[in-house]
Structure prediction request, 84 residues.
Amino acid sequence: MANGPKSRVDLEKMRREYERFRTTVKTEGNRGKITFRAVANIVENVHLEGSVRGSRFESDEPEERGGANLAPAPLSYFLMGAAF
Prediction:
């Protein structure tokens, strides 16, 4: 399999990052806890802008639910997260 196709995922890099994280958690005394902060602001009606860990997101509902369909609905993000 040495001549087979390469994976798109660098498993060795993922392993190194996982080990680095575990070492950091042990030395900083966080006892394995991670905290993420999510912030969301209402733009208009059900159109929201938010951010998590430096990434910006928008969500909106379809017109039949009071939105303008300007961005994916919150449930769409939830389903995509489950797919990952």
The chain is about 35% helix and 20% strand. The CA atoms of residues 47 and 60 lie 4 Å apart. Strands lie at 38-44, 47-52, 55-59. The mean pLDDT is 87.
